[in-house]
Structure formats: structure tokens, C-alpha cells
Design brief:
This protein is mainly alpha-helical. It has 12 helices and no strands. α2 runs parallel beside α4 and α6 runs antiparallel to α9.
């Protein structure tokens, strides 16, 4: 999608023809090369996902899109541009695999319409964002001369910058997929996934850090409240507690100690964790597939 705003000018810069009427023809060939290659390999990727699992196929698709964008950005002739687009389509025929993955995650039929409705929404969002990036960043030396000087890499390859930006987004998607995307194939989901193990360790580390911060904050609040209560002046006529009856099980408060110790506060937060709220709906697999599908768009 990101190539649509500048593909005409890119073909024109190749000087493949002096007839301006034929530039649109070559632009159509470059644009359709991706779809044709994707159409040719879609069934093969689907069968391969049944053999090796869904996650490896989806990761190969993202890596193929990354390589395709870099080749296309460095293209200086029409054959290289065609090769870059065809490479991306051949390695990215995983739309069917992605739909199968969503169906395996959302097993209850009553929730499947909502899950499938997310994918067209994210695809449409990517269709809006992609052309914006391509149109805004193409030919940076011409459009932003103060930021990109002539004679540099961006001048030699004027359509590289939008592809580099899109490639960086795809790298982020690859990292998210490796660390947090779970295998959904019934036979492959129980095999060891080192990337997923690393991602789970990172999540546990973040949760422990967050919980420790919450414990420290709650302890500080309780200590401040107890100090404020103890520092208040007693009411007139009641200046001491000497001689007052005291229940044997009652505890005396001292200004130096909060009403709850750190261990008691830690046990309380472990038994009563904060409410998940919206996290109950947007679970980690759902968010991962939303981001992955947006990047594919």
C-alpha cells in the first residue's frame, strides 16, 4: 500500500520508456507482481503451516515483507523493483494462515464474528497509514532539502526512506511475534518455543517490578496516614491512656511503625491483585494478532 503514492514517479526515474502513456503500464506490473506472487504461493504456505505450525509461517511472512521492502527501496531499475515486489508476495502468502490462527484462538463461535471483524478494521487502518508514509517520505531530498542533502544515500535512492520506515515497523512486529505469539496448531502448540519463553520471562519481570512499586506506594501511604493520626492532638480532658481498659488482643500503634508491615501488605496484594479491566478482553494473543495484522496491511 505504501508504494501507491510514488510508484509512477519511481517508474519514471528508471527511464524505461520515453512514452509517458506506458509508465502507467509498468507501474501496474510492479503493483500487481506482489498480488500475483501471493496468489501463487498462498496454498503452499497453508499446507506448510499444517506441517510446521502457524507461527513459523507468519514469521517468515514478516521477514519476507522486510526483505521485499529493502530490495524495493534500493531498486534502481525496473527488473529489481519487480523482483522486490514478487519476493514479498511469494514469502507473504499467509493471509489464510492468519485467519486460521484467529479461528484456533477464538474457539467459541459466538465470539468469532467479533474476532474476524477486527482484521478488516486493522487492514483498513494499515491501508490508510501506508500511503501516508509513502507519500510523505518519498524523495526526501526534494521535499525536505534542509534535512536531506543532495549527494547522499537518500538522493541516490529517493524512494528508500519510506521503505526503511516501514521495515522498522516490521522489525518491531517480528520481535513481538517471536516473543509473545503463541503457536495455535493443535499438534505443534506444546513443543518448546525459546522465543516465547524469553517473552514470558520479560513479562514476569515487568509484573514483579510493577507489583513492587505498588507495594512500596501502598506502604508509604499507610505509614503517612498512621503518622498523621498519631501526631494529632488528643481531645481536651483526655491526655493519656494510662488506666484505660485495653483488650488483650489489641495492638498499640507507635509512630515509628505503619499499621501494616511490608510482609502483610505484600500478602494482601498477592491475594487481591488489581483488577485487569480491559485486559480481560484484549488478551496477549488478541493484541499480538491485531498488531501483526496491522503490520501485514
Amino acid at each position: 500500500m505504501s508504494i501507491f503514492p510514488y510508484i509512477y514517479f519511481m517508474i519514471e526515474s528508471f527511464h524505461v520508456t520515453n512514452n509517458e502513456d506506458q509508465i502507467s503500464l509498468y507501474a501496474g506490473l510492479v503493483t500487481s507482481a506482489f498480488a500475483f506472487a501471493e496468489f501463487s504461493t498462498g496454498v503452499l504456505w497453508g499446507r506448510l503451516s499444517d506441517s510446521i505450525g502457524r507461527k513459523p509461517v507468519l514469521m517468515v511472512g514478516l521477514i519476507g515483507t522486510l526483505l521485499s521492502m529493502l530490495v524495493f527501496g534500493f531498486a534502481s531499475s525496473l527488473p529489481i523493483a519487480l523482483l522486490g515486489r514478487a519476493l514479498g508476495g511469494a514469502l507473504n502468502g499467509n493471509i489464510g494462515v492468519l485467519q486460521t490462527t484467529v479461528a484456533e484462538i477464538v474457539t467459541e463461535k459466538k465470539h468469532q464474528p467479533s474476532a474476524y471483524a477486527i482484521m478488516p478494521f486493522v487492514w483498513s487502518f494499515g491501508s490508510i497509514l501506508g500511503p501516508l508514509i509513502g507519500g510523505a517520505l518519498a524523495e526526501p531530498c526534494k521535499n525536505y532539502p534542509r534535512l536531506f542533502a543532495r549527494g547522499t544515500l537518500w538522493d541516490r535512492y529517493p524512494f528508500l526512506l519510506p521503505n526503511v520506515v516501514c521495515a522498522m515497523i516490521i522489525v518491531l512486529g517480528i520481535l513481538i511475534g517471536i516473543l509473545f505469539l503463541e503457536e495455535t496448531h493443535q499438534e505443534k502448540r506444546y513443543r518448546r518455543d525459546i522465543g516465547l519463553e524469553i517473552g514470558q520471562r520479560l513479562l514476569r519481570s515487568l509484573k514483579r517490578t510493577r507489583r513492587a512499586a505498588l507495594l512500596d506506594k501502598s506502604t508509604d501511604v499507610n505509614f503517612a496516614e498512621s503518622r498523621s493520626l498519631l501526631d494529632d492532638e488528643p481531645p481536651p480532658g483526655y491526655r493519656t491512656t494510662e488506666g484505660s481498659p485495653r483488650h488483650p488482643s489489641s495492638r498499640s500503634l507507635s509512630p515509628a511503625a505503619p499499621p501494616y508491615s511490608c510482609s502483610e501488605a505484600r500478602i494482601f496484594w498477592q491475594n487481591n491483585p488489581p483488577s485487569a479491566g480491559i485486559q480481560k478482553t484484549f488478551t496477549r494473543p488478541v493484541v499480538t494478532h491485531i498488531i501483526g495484522f496491522g503490520i501485514l496491511a
